[in-house]
Amino acid sequence: MTAKQETTVLKGAHVIDPANGIDQVTDIMIHEGRIAGVGEHIIADDATVVDLTGKYLSPGWIDMHVHAYGTLGFADPDTVGVYQGVTSFVEAGGPGIGTLDEFFALMTDLETDLYVGPFIRPLGLLGLNFIEGDVRTLGDVPITRWVDTAKQHRDRIRYIKCNAMGDYGPGTLHVTKGLAQILGVPLYMHIGEFQLQTPDPVLAYEAFKIAEKGDMITHIYHGNLGQIIDDEGKIMPVVTDALERGVLFDLGFGGYNFSWDIAEKAFAQGIVPYTISSDLQQFNVIRPVQSLANVLSVMMHLGMPLKQLIECVTVNSAKAISLADRAGDLSVGKPADITVFEIEGGRFELMDCYTQTRTADKRVMPAMTFKNGKRFDADMTRGQAESNWFLQIAEDHIPDATAQLSERQLAFLGKLGTALSETDWELSSAERLDIPKALELQALFHRVREQSDLPLREALRAVYDSFVDNKFTMQIGLFLMRLERPFALSRMAEMAAKRPHLAA
Amino acid sequence: MTTMTEHAWQALKGVNAETATFPARASFEGEGIVVFRTKDGYRGTQRACPHMQATMLNGELTANDTMVRCPLHVFTFKLSDGKGVNCAGFRIKVYEVRREGETLYARPAAI
Q1: How far apart are CA B33 and CA A363, in angstroms?
Q2: Chain A CB contacts of B62 below 8 Å
Q3: pLDDT digits over B81-93, tens only?
Q4: In angstroms, how far is CA B55 from the centroid of its own chain?
Q5: Least CB-CB distance to A430: which of B71, B74, B89?
Q6: A379 lies in a domain?
Q7: What is the pTM of this model?
Q8: Which of A320, A340, A359 is where one domain is finished?
Q9: C-alpha angle with apex A411: A409 to A414, nearest 5 degrees?
Q10: ipTM metric
Q11: Residue B43 domain-assigned?
C-alpha cells in the first residue's frame, strides 16, 4: 500500500463535531485509518483528496438500537450500517445468555462495528409473534454464566435489555436492573404495549420509576398503551422525575414506536430524546423506518436543530454506552469513523408507525461513510432488497452455499438429522411459542455438535446454509422449530449423502 | 334445485371487474375480502392481516406475484396456501378468483 492510499484529506465540508465544539467549514485528514488532523486548508503530499464542498460532515453515526441478528435481523446488517451513514450499532436484545455464544460465533464479518445489548430472556427476542405473557416464559437468569460471559465479552456488551411490557409485573424489571448492576452496565428498557393485551399495572410507568441515572428508556414517543403523556396531553410526572434523575431517553423509532401526535405534544413540552436510534429490523426497513437518516429527518421536522440531531447520534450515544474512548467525535487519534451527508430540499412524506404522515421540505441524506478510514458510498436502497429482509426457507432447492460445506459439516448434518428424528415438533402457532421445545432443539444441536467436535460457527453455518439462500442468522432452537419436521429431516439426510467419500 | 357445496364458485359482491382498480374490496358470503390482480389472473385474501389487523387492501404483491406482503410490518404470505413466510404460525385465508365479463367468482382455495 502506498502513502497516497493511506492518507486522505476531506476538503470543504461543513464539519459538525459537537464534542469538540466545531461547527464550520474545515478540512479533515485521515491517516492509516485514524483522524490525523482537523483544520482549515490541510495540505498533505500524496494524499487522496475528496472535495466535499456543500456537504456536511460529522463523526460517524452510532445507532444504539438495531436488530442485526436473530428473529428480527437482516441477511446483511451492513446495509443499515456503513451504507447508510452508521459506523457503529448495537444489537438491541436479539440474543440472551443462552444464545450469546451463537451471536458471537456468527456476527464476525461486518464492516460496521456491532455491539450488543443482550436480552434478559435466555433465548433473546423471540420474534413478533410471541405474546409477552406468563412470567415463567422469561426463564432462568443464570448469574454465574452472565458474569463469566460479560467478562469474556466486556468490549461488546453495552447494556442489558428488557421489555417493560406484558403481564410479567414490575419484578422482572427489578431482576433485570439487578443483573445490570451486577455486570456494571446500564439498563435499557423498551416501553409501550404494542401487543393485543392490557396488563395491570402498565409496566412503562414502573420502568420510569426503576431507572437510575445512566439507565435508558427507549421508544419515548410511542403511541401505544403506557404513553409518556396523560389523557390531557401533559407529560406524566413519573417521566419528568426520571429525566431529573439523569435517566436517558432514547427515540427507538421502530415499527410500532413513534407517533407524530405524541412526539409533537412531548417535544413542545421539552421532552426530547438524548439519543436517536432507529430500531431497524426486517419488519420495518421497507417502512416506516427505512434508515437512521430518515429518523433524523423526522426529528428535524419536529424542530430539533441540526447540531442537536448530530449530538444525539454521535457524542451522546457514545457517552450513553461508554464508547467515547473510540467513537462519537473527531479528535486527532480517534478511529476515522465519519459520516458525510446532505440536507436535501424537496417535498417529503414522513410516516409515523400508525397512520399519520407529515410533509417536510427537507431531509437528511447520507452521501458517504468512512469506517476506520475505509470509504463506503451511501446506498439507501440495498437495505430494502428482498434478499436482505425476507428470510425464506429454500424448500424447493438446495442453496448454493452448501457447495462450500466440508465433509465434517455434512457428516454433522447427518448426525443432527438422526438425533432430531427421535424427537417431535411442529411449527409454532401465532399465539403460542413452544419455548421448552425450542430449548430442547437447541440443546440437542449442541450435544450433536460437541460429539462431532465441530466449532460452533461451522455447525451453525452447516444448518443455515442447508436451508437459507441468504445469510440470515437466528437462534438455532427457534430456527429448527420453524422448519417443517419431515422436510428438515429429509434435507439433512440429503446433505449427509453428499459427503465426497460416498459420492463414488 | 342445486345444492351449494362449500367450495362452489360464488359471484363476488361489491366489485365490478371492468371498472375496479386492484387490489379491490369485495364480499364473499358476507365476509370482506381483497382481490389482487396477478400476472396469472386473480387471487383473493382475507381483508385483515392476522398480525395487527391492517387492511390487506394496501398489500403488495411480491416474489413474482406469488406472495402478498402486509404494508405495516412486511408480514408476507403465500398466495397459494396463505401460509406466513417470514412469520411462522401466521396464516391468511386465500381464495381462487376467476372472471366472467364484469363478474368475479371466488371460492376458498383448496389447500
Answers
A1: 38
A2: 386
A3: 999 888 877 899 9
A4: 12
A5: B89
A6: no
A7: 0.94
A8: A320
A9: 115
A10: 0.79
A11: yes
